[in-house]
Structure formats: structure tokens, C-alpha cells
Amino acid sequence: MAFNRVRIAKDKAELVQSLVEGNGNTGVFQTYADVMTFAATLGAKSKKRVPLNIISKEPAPISLEIFVSRGYDPVIKLLAVSETNDPKILSVYDAESESERIHIFEEYANGGLEKLREELRGSVDYTERLLLILSAERFSHHSSDEEFDLSRFL
Asked: Global pTM?
């Protein structure tokens, strides 16, 4: 399996680094894998899949084993199945399937990072802004602007 690393787009590298705590940062996440997984799920939620153009050298591509050890492997597989509608992409014996799963995950993460960059622009405290984003998402289902439908009483 030669392609078992998750790559980060060069134009998002600084954002990813700023979201991770350490090196003087008071980031929100502990690892790059945490950031990428959050971004991938945000990208999938927003249906935003963006190809990677230039790959970042720092942070370096992240080993797939880190995602597995942190319990994020099901997220990668779920995104791949939902994107392709093909359960064969889950094959652990096919290197091409693994490569495709990682590719889909990378593109959703890149899309999510674009969305995060827009949302966090001008923010000093990423923690507070991310909490506001999550809170808005949580309560967006309860407040709908739909008209009251009387047909359900017929």
C-alpha cells in the first residue's frame, strides 16, 4: 500500500497548523488527524469536495495508521461509500480501493478547510468561533422557516 498517507493542500497548511495546539499555538485540536477529520466531515456536510492542487510539505502527509489509531477509519470508509455508492470500496485487500477512499477523504477535508477558513476569517479565538459554528448547526434543525403544513391533519 504505497498511498497510505493523507495529504494536505499547501494553501491550507497554515490554517491546519494554527488549529493544532503546540508550537506556541493554542489550537483547538490535538493532532493534524483531528483537524483533517473534522474538516472532512464539515466538507461532506456542506457537499464541498475540492481537489488538492499543490501538496504541503509541512505539515507532512499524515500516516493512515494515525487515523486508524484515533478511531477515524470508519469516517473515511463512510465518506467513501456514501460518495461512490459502491460497497466494494471498503475492500481491505484492494490497494486501489484504499487509495480511492483516501482521495475522497482528502478532497472533502480540503473543502471543509475552505469552509473553515471562511468562517474563521478575522477570528482571534478559534475555539469560540468553532463552538458558535457547532451550536448553530445543532440548533438549525429545530428552527425551520417552513410554513405550517395543515395537510398532515387531513
From this structure: 0.85
